[in-house]
Design brief:
Helix content: 25-40%
Number of helices: 13
CATH superfamily of the largest domain: FAD/NAD(P)-binding domain
CATH architecture of the largest domain: 3-Layer(bba) Sandwich
Number of strands: 30
Structural class: alpha/beta
Radius of gyration: 27 Å
CATH topology of the largest domain: FAD/NAD(P)-binding domain
Distance between the termini: 71 Å
Length: 591
């Protein structure tokens, strides 16, 4: 009979003690290698610990409810054959489940321990191939080239830049600026300057938006050429762990690689029965094309993307109705930060239906009939167009991912560790394909980390916080721990809030509805979160993100001399409010 071997908890990432919520085997059970033994659950993820070899369980050393960490003994087992005796007893092979999006401050979900890499091919066409030329992909490709690697960048579409530059961040912000020009003119009517109703030339506006996109995407082509990064246009799919097949206009091309970074991005999704192919039912990409200004527009989804497009179309003349399944808009931010924004759009938009779902959409050549289910919504209504903005899914389903040796999680994402390495040692994944938050600025940093690791640098993704911004009017931005999150997690915090009605710069802009809120850890007085609503909130939030990264406390921020008069002073004054040193408002002494 084989000697008993110990099975211990493998490396489970950045966790000191994780609770066992389920034991999946019993003494006497015969278990195949990679079959799950126990299920662990932390505040961040659920993960299963697999058997490292074919075996028979002889003794369990843990119980449901126990907390375990790396190296703790799970069970004793006898190997099924002599070859298993030399197998390591702590190699994880499955990724944690990713049923829920990770909070912005979290590291990527821990990936399985990399499997031994197949020998890099001697006939490799490149050191690195990058799939996807969005902000994460092109940043990875360019950084790798700077480190001396031979790089091929594969992009499905003719223009580089991915969703962000072509049909996302950049074109939407161009249109949002146009909308803000209109909105600012309306706001100033009460202060002595009144403009006539703007005349909208959609063709010129569309051409200007496209020129902005063209300047950036054209610049990327130049940067690729300068770095000698070969760009291949076509649809990529794996044929084996070291080979991609790319369907180009000139036919199929096989690319042999030593390393790969998957940066394929994501695309909009719609609930079942929502026909996004109908011209009157749009996703966010369609909405940016500005084919017409619908008289009545329904926005399905009260998140950032939907509300940004609501801002654009309202300014251009559409009557806006927003429907949201949750009980509030922008659920990621604290309610008090969203409140000033909500107060303004309540006056602008025709309807905002919360706790309401769309039961059906029936489109014809002239409009869309919509059925609702909710307390305050009508049973039926008709709109000229409907924009569906309820989420995105990773573009992993068209890559023939199984041929690479990888498997997808239930949500279609790929698990990666803090070096962006997947379960296949020479393949890395970044950006939207590894899950929430699906933000371009996160992908850029991840792409650089992956390139540096491949290039032999000591690098890892350790972003303590990732800011979120809604470029609505007013803008809403948040970073780190929210006040609601702190309460739910039992964190002792101190909050400093400064209303922009007491800020000279906001008053001179005629926009005093803003608020800056900072959240501090009570014991250390270090800033751990912030929420800002108001003009240019997206720019202001960067200071707080840096302060959190640097471990600044309320005094560091308050004692930093900010220029006057500026909106940035509101950050310092919120810190002073928490510290009890604020003089621009009277607040009862707390310290």
């Amino acid at each position: 009979m084989s000697e008993e071997k110990e099975i211990r908890v493998p490396d489970i990432g950045d966790f000191d003690a994780v609770e066992i919520i389920e034991i999946l085997v019993a003494p006497g059970d015969s278990v195949e290698a990679e079959a799950s033994l126990i299920t662990l659950e932390s505040d961040k993820a659920t993960m299963e610990v697999p058997a490292p070899f074919d075996c028979t369980i002889t003794t369990l050393k843990v119980n449901v409810g126990d907390s375990v960490a790396k190296g703790d003994l799970i069970a004793l087992a006898t190997a099924a054959d002599a070859e298993a005796d030399d197998a390591p007893a702590n190699t994880p092979t499955e990724a944690p489940a990713a049923d829920k999006p990770a909070p912005a401050a979290e590291k990527p979900a821990p990936a399985p321990a990399p499997t031994p890499a197949a020998a890099a091919p001697d006939d490799a066409d490149c050191d690195l191939v990058v799939i996807g030329a969005g902000p994460g992909g092109y940043s990875a490709a360019f950084r790798a080239a700077d480190l001396g690697l031979k790089v091929i960048l594969v992009e499905r579409y003719a223009a580089l830049g991915g969703v962000c530059l072509n049909v996302g961040c950049i074109p939407s912000k161009a249109l949002l600026h146009a909308a803000k020009v209109i909105d600012d003119a309306e706001f100033f009517a009460d202060h002595g300057i009144k403009f006539s109703k703007p005349k909208i030339d959609l063709k010129k506006l569309e051409a200007w938006k496209s020129s902005v996109v063209g300047k950036l995407t054209g610049g990327l082509q130049g940067l690729a050429k300068q770095r000698k990064v070969e760009v291949v246009t076509g649809k990529a799919g794996f044929t084996d762990p070291h080979t991609l097949n790319v369907e180009t206009d000139d036919g199929s091309r096989a690319i042999r690689f030593r390393h790969c970074i998957i940066a394929a991005g994501s695309r909009p999704v719609a609930p079942p029965g929502f026909d996004l192919k109908h011209p009157r039912i749009m996703d966010s990409t369609d909405a940016l094309e500005l084919e017409e200004i619908p008289k009545r527009l329904l926005i399905v989804g009260g998140g950032i993307i939907g509300l940004e497009m609501a801002s654009v179309y309202h300014a251009l003349g559409s009557e806006i109705t927003v429907v949201e399944l949750a009980d509030r808009l922008m659920t990621g931010a604290d309610a008090d930060i969203v409140k000033p924004f909500r107060k303004i759009i309540d006056k602008r938009y025709a309807n905002i239906y919360l706790k309401t779902r769309v039961v059906s959409l029936s489109a014809d050549d002239k409009g869309v009939d919509v059925e609702f289910e909710g307390d305050k919504a009508p049973a039926k209504d008709r709109f000229d167009r409907v924009l569906v903005s309820v989420g995105r899914r990773p573009n992993t389903d068209g890559l023939n991912i199984e041929a690479s040796g990888l498997s997808l999680q239930d949500n279609g994402c790929i698990a990666a560790d803090d070096q962006m390495r997947t379960a296949v040692e020479h393949i890395f994944a970044i950006g939207d394909v590894i899950g929430q938050p699906m933000l371009a600025h996160k992908a850029v940093h991840e792409g650089k980390v992956a390139a540096e690791v491949i290039g032999g640098e000591k690098s890892g993704f350790d972003g303590r916080v990732i800011p979120s911004v809604a470029y609505t009017d007013p803008e809403v931005a948040w970073v780190g721990v929210t006040q609601e999150q702190a309460k739910a997690e039992g964190l002792a915090v101190e909050v400093g809030t400064f209303p922009w009605a007491a800020n000279g710069r906001s008053l001179s802009l005629g926009r005093d509805e803003g608020v800056t809120k900072l959240i501090f850890e009570k014991d250390t007085e270090r800033v751990i979160g912030a929420g800002i609503v108001g003009t240019n909130a997206g720019d202001l939030i960067a200071e707080v993100a840096l302060a959190i990264e640097m471990g600044a406390d309320m005094h560091d921020i308050g004692l930093t001399i900010h220029p006057h008069p500026t909106l940035s002073e509101s950050v310092a004054m919120a810190a002073e409010a928490a510290a009890g040193t604020l003089t621009d408002l009277y607040m009862p002494r707390k310290r």
